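User: I'll paste a sequence; please echo it back and then give the predicted structure.

Assistant: Echoing your sequence first, then the prediction.
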Amino acid sequence: MDIQTRTITLPSGRTATLRMGRGRDLVNAHRAVASNPEPIAISFALIAELATIDGRKIVYEDLLTMDLNDVLVLESEIIEAPAENFPKAADQE
């Protein structure tokens, strides 16, 4: 199976590699935060499913302590939202 990935430079200068998501990734994200009532929890869990930072797998809790601009870029990249409300990745400016 060919896994599609893309690599971006976060505002902090760290490198994120994002892989193309599948339905099972969304299911896993929901399961990971089933007891968490915060609406953003699923988004964070999905980012953790699909991203590595500087070659290292991340977990939901890592996102809680990351620089906000990095988190917003990751969220924008994962959900492919219009970037007008999110900072741009450093290599997209």
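The first helix runs from residue 23 to 32. The beta strands are 5-9, 15-19, 51-53, 56-57.
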